[in-house]
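Q&A FORM
Asked by: J.P.
Topic: structure of AcrR family transcriptional regulator

PROVIDED:
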Amino acid sequence: MAYDADDTRRRILAASTAEFAEHGLAGARVDRIAAAAGCSKERLYAHFGDKESLFTAVLNHSFSQLGEAASVDFASVEDFAVAIFDHLVDNPENQRLLGWARLEQRHDWAGSFAVLEEVRRTSLTHLERLAPARGSWSADDLFALVLAIASAWMQLPGLPADRALEPDVGDQRAIVREAVGRLLGP
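REPLIED BY: S.T.
REPLY: Here is the structure written out as C-alpha cells.
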C-alpha cells in the first residue's frame, strides 16, 4: 500500500486536536498523538515540525472551521449568530483549544493572524450587509457581541452529572436568536 501524506496529515490533525483539547499545549504528549494517529513521532515531526507548530496548525484548523461556518450567505444577523452557535456546539474542542491558547500564553498568535483575519473579514462583510451603521458601533463591535452571545454557554463549566434536566440546545439556539434580535433592536 502506498504512503498517503494527506491521509497521514488528517490523522495527525485529528489526534492532535483531541490531545491538545484535553491537555493543552503543555500537557499534550507527542507520543500519544503519534500513537493515536497511527504514525511515528518522526513522521509527525516531518509533517508539522515541533509541538508548538503542531498546536498552531490545530488551532488554525479550528479557526478555519469557524470561518467556514461564518461563510454562508445569511439572511439575518440572527441567522449568522445561530450558525456560529451551532458550529461551537458541534465542535466543543475548538473552544477548549482557544481556552488553552489563552491560558498557557505560549501560542504564537502571529502564526494564526492570517486565518483569524480571514474569519474576521468574512464575518464583517456579512454583518455590514445585514446590519449597516449601528450608531457608534462598528462591525467589529457587533462581531464581538454576536460571538459572545453565541458562545455564552461554552464559557460555563459543566453542570453536575446528577442534574435532572440537561440544557436544551434548541432552547439555547432560540435564546441566541432572540438576544441578537434584541441587541439590534427595531
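FOLLOW-UP: Residues 50-184 form a domain with the Tetracycline Repressor; domain 2 fold (CATH 1.10.357.10).
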